[in-house]
Design brief:
single chain, 5-stranded parallel sheet
Amino acid sequence: MNILITGANGFIGKNLIAQLNNEGFFNIQKYTLDNSLEELEEFTKNCDFIYHLAGVNRPINDSEFYKGNTNFTEILISFLEKNKNYAPILVSSSIQAMNDNPYGSSKRQGEEIVFSYGERHNCEVMIYRLQNLFGKWSKPNYNSVVATFCYNISRGLPLEVNNPSSEITLSYIDDVTKEFIHALKEQPTRKIDFCVVPVEYKSTVGELAEKITQFNDNRKTLVMPSLKNQFNRDLYATYLSYLDETNFSYNLKKNSDDRGWLAEFIKSKDNGQIFISTTKPGITRGNHWHNTKVEKFLVIKGNGNIKFRNVNENKIIEYKVTGENLEVVDIPAGYTHSIQNIGDDELITLFWACEIFDQDNPDTYYLEV
């Protein structure tokens, strides 16, 4: 199948092409601002499906709206008709087409041109009125509030939030490309005359700024905001994509003593925290118990001996563990416990606790095993 994509270098185009390639579609003719109209005419001769993504939304003069959105669509359709190629066409329009302003009017006129083409030749047309897209590879400080927030917050730049309570409906780029590829496979999601992306999210501008700020703060506090819902996961992935390339990494605080060192890695109000430690040969850590807090120990290097004792009994339970065999050991409440390095080399252990350590309520009581 030969696929023609106009606006191939744009936000949607880049993501769509990447996913088309992932799904085995490689015969893609990419029309960008670097191509001529003569090349576009040539592309329309043998294409089997058209994604019409090209458009103008931030011109210097209003007349450019009509040139880029209306007139260019007219040219594309005229080439298809000249070549007697009545292939299905999918158009990325905008919810702004419902508004009476130069941008909305130009998009609406472009829609009408495509609808007329479909009626004249009885061919399939799919028009999506998209709104507030977000995801990787969008241009910040342009037309995506999420891209702007992610870019500025990740770089410590100021935000302009004029109305935090303003509601906004968002579509994630992966959901858009998924729907567009469904359309290619003759499975578009239709709603009367138009097609729709079936997944959308609602938020306020203030909530967006707060969530992205929390993602950014995680690199200092180690506290990860909830990722239980898909919107938060999509938003976090988007935030990370806007990190400066010189700032992908961040340092953890290493607490060192004569036993080795310990560093907290990640914390979550929903799922506790993870930390890692080293223990020198012969050294024992722990010898304490918890009323409610539970943990998991995982030795990833070296040889250790984990001991338990029910605080009401004298019987000692031992688990010898090694980094050669990844064995997770649960630490139940009510058992005092310890871990000793019984090898000749450094012991490295990964720990999980079910809650973030609270200095005012540590639920940790010293007691020798």
